[in-house]
Amino acid sequence: MQTSFGKQDATFVAASYVFDNAEEYAKVRYHDLSALYDARTVRHLEQLGIERGWCCLEVGGGSGSIASWLCDRVGDQGRVLATDIEPRFLQALAYRNLQVCRHDIRIEGLPKSEFDVAHARLVLMHLPGRELALQRMIEALKPGSWIVVEEFDVLSIFPDSAVNKTEEQLKTIRAFYRVMTSRGIEMRYGRRLPQQLRERGLANVGAEGTMSIWRGSSPGTNMFKLSFEELADSILRSGLISEAEFEADMKRLDQQDFLMPSPMMWTVWGQVPESDPQPFWEI
Question: CATH for 26-154+185-212+264-273, among 3.30.70.1070, 3.40.50.150, 3.50.40.10, 3.30.2350.10?
Fold first, then answer.
């Protein structure tokens, strides 16, 4: 199903997503992301007290794992709108209470004051115009409703031999960071989110940041390896790493004795005030 909401905003021209989510290997990336983070995402959504009959918004729905959980949670009396710039995996889901939309939140608006909860994971950091996207998610919420946003802060992935002399130096990581930031990705967006929600007038703002150690040939290192390989041409053109060094790093990521710190995953939530004489997004 393809749906359009409201007028298009020409302020931002749709930029290509860095990773091609139309390709089959996107399934591998989504599988790894689900293995790493779905249980954590569900825990935070459950804490909101989502009930049957709720109306839910999932922005950047990807494989649909969280959209599926929301559909089961809210039941036939509820509704889930799942959006993505490439919704092919969402369109394969068979839920009567699911609506799928091919949608760039920076370009097209959303229904106003309609949803009980809005969620996005690892979406906004990729978007030039992410502040507009965040504002539109908030505008789509009813008074008293909740937003939950999950984004990385990648500072932790850089080795620091002054702290731990055994940490390995993968040159690919620094080259990858350079390529991503040059394309407008905010690699440390997660730690900015609490203030972003407070500045927009949300109440009951809270946050949790978690990280872990990833072993070689695990979902985390597999996800990073896939990303490195997809951007290999740009990484090598950066001049920060040779082809031989890149290939050595890719092999190291597959080895069981390899260890690396994960990015910090920030989960941040806030509640639209129950009553506000003037909507805070119009102030």
Answer: 3.40.50.150
Query: Could you report the per-residue pLDDT of 33-83, keeping only the tens digit for each?
Result: 999 999 999 999 999 999 999 999 999 999 999 999 999 999 999 999 999
Flag whether the pTM goes above 0.85.
Answer: yes
Q: DSSP string covering the chain, please?
A: -----S-B-TTSPPPPPSS-TTSTTHHHHHHHHHHHHHHHHHHHHHTTT--TT-EEEEES-TTSHHHHHHHHHH-TTSEEEEEESS-TTGGG---TTEEEEE--TTTB---SS-EEEEEEES-GGG-TTHHHHHHHHHHTEEEEEEEEEEEEEGGGGS--TTT-TT----HHHHHHHHHHHHTT--TTGGGGHHHHHHHTT-EEEEEEEE--EEETTSHHHHHHHHHHHHTHHHHHHTTSS-HHHHHHHHHHHT-TT-EEEPPEEEEEEEE--S--SS-GGG-
